[in-house]
Amino acid sequence: MRCVVILLGPPGAGKGTQAARLGKDLSLAHISTGDLFRDNLSRGTELGRQAKSYMDSGRLVPDVLVLDMLFDRVARADCSKGYLLDGFPRTLPQAEALERALGKSARILALNLKVADEVLVERLGGRRTCETCGNIHHLRFSPPKVAGACDKCSGRLVQRPDDSAEVVQKRLRVYREQTLPLEAFYAERKLLVNVDGARAPEEVLGELQRACRGPVMEGCR
């Protein structure tokens, strides 16, 4: 039976970083919705063309189309034992659609990174991204050696618009409205493990690894 690990958490909780490391540790493909879109758009697939038509007109890509992209991706050989989802599902309808599509073919574990709003605002507000190579620094946690310059390529560091305090608060409101209900959805099914995401990354990773060795994942290791 395949393992499907879902990483939940608000923006700034560290999902992307932890998903990449955890996927490697578990030998599971790390799949994000952003990667799905970029892959289909770059390859010019029919699914990519359909998604582009929605995005170009400012409309949300329908859940059914995102699921089609997801199941097209997980049909590849590197997902034969399972995969780790980062950024999907984001809403209850998406979670319900995923549950129906998987049926009894996979065992699900939802790992939820819990981080207080004030910590998230500090994390996101202090991020600076290199205009040239995309490398990310943090003014407090990983400051550049030269102020305003990327350690990797010396490119200019800037604050992304969606990392400003005002936009961060808006992103958190959207998260609470749309994604927070997934905690109850998976808790009711006894598939949810809450993890304190405010600690050092190595500590968080260790707890995520232990959760994946727990009883929920029995039968798919």
User: Care to count the β-strands?
Assistant: 8
Strand content range: 15-25%
- Record the strand order, biggest sheet: 2-3-1-4-8
Query: Structural class, from helix and strand content?
Result: alpha/beta
Integer tally of domains: 1
What is the fold-level CATH name, i.e. the topology? Answer: Rossmann fold
Shape: globular
User: What's the total helix number?
Assistant: 9
Distance between the termini: 8 Å
Roughly how much helix do the residues carry, as a percent range? 40-55%
Rg value: 18 Å
Average pLDDT over all residues: 91
Task: Walk me through this protein's architecture.
It is a single chain. This protein has helices at residues 15-26, 33-43, 46-56, 63-73, 92-102, 117-125, 165-178, 181-188, 201-212; strands at residues 2-8, 29-32, 82-86, 106-114, 127-130, 136-138, 157-158, 192-196. The chain is an alpha/beta fold and 221 residues long. It has one domain (2-28, 81-217): P-loop containing nucleotide triphosphate hydrolases (Rossmann fold, 3-Layer(aba) Sandwich). The strands form 2 sheets. Strands 2-3-1-4-8 form a 5-stranded parallel beta sheet, sandwiched between helices. The protein is globular, with a radius of gyration of 18 Å. The mean pLDDT is 91.
